[in-house]
Recover the amino acids of this structure.
């Protein structure tokens, strides 16, 4: 590759990343009890630079070692949390949050304001079954929007109190949104993978007062 071209690629602060449209390209799957999941594969393209930066450079990852949500869950993974008003580790994440807020505002009635980041270093990192039920989501419908970067991992959902689970494979740049009663009436997990699995970063956008 020509040196000048290469230099200009590095100069591009987005690293060539681009968010596709949401209008007309989000597919909704209705679950039971007022829960639903929206999926938009390949929402962010060209996100290799963003992924590498988040994984290795711009995020102060910490180990998670606390009681999480409504039960004690195993959380072998690294995390970082950007609460309302905090500068996100990359302007692309601010763009993503703004785009999600705009698209979902008519249905959600409020913007996404926080970002939780999780780093799954390999297939042995995971998060066990839980709902995001800290705060208003314990009693109210909400949405949790997930932008997945890096290696593909399964996000599994199952109804609380038993029933068949539903599995989604989340790949590089994919968007998945859990909505309605999903945090209260269903649980979700990222199971361990026994196959060789590369690193993955998950970005979860939530509304005010929801963890
Ligand atoms: O890794 C994911 O995409 C899901 C993370 C999650 O459920 C959580 O942190 O609450
Ligand atoms: Fe969660």
């Amino acid at each position: 590759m020509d040196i000048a071209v290469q230099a200009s690629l590095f100069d591009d602060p987005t690293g060539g990343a681009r968010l596709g449209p949401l209008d007309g390209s989000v597919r909704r799957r209705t679950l039971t009890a007022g829960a639903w999941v929206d999926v938009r594969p390949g929402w962010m393209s060209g996100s290799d630079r963003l992924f590498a930066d988040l994984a290795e450079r711009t995020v102060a990852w910490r180990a998670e070692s606390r009681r999480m949500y409504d039960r004690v869950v195993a959380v072998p993974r690294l995390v970082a949390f950007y609460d309302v008003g905090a500068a996100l580790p990359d302007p692309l994440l601010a763009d993503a949050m703004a785009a999600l807020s705009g698209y979902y505002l008519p249905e959600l009635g409020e913007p996404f304001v926080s970002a939780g980041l999780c780093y799954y270093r390999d297939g042995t990192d995971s998060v066990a079954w839980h709902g995001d039920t800290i705060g208003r989501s314990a009693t109210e419908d909400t949405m949790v929007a997930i932008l997945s970067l890096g290696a593909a991992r399964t996000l599994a959902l199952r109804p609380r109190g038993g029933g068949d689970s539903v599995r989604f494979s989340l790949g590089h740049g994919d968007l998945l949104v859990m909505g309605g009663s999903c945090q209260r009436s269903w649980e979700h997990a990222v199971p361990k993978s026994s196959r060789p699995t590369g690193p993955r970063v998950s970005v979860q956008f939530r509304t005010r007062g929801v963890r």
Q: What stands out?
A: Confidence is low (pLDDT under 50) at residues 1-7. The first strand starts at residue 18 and ends at 19.
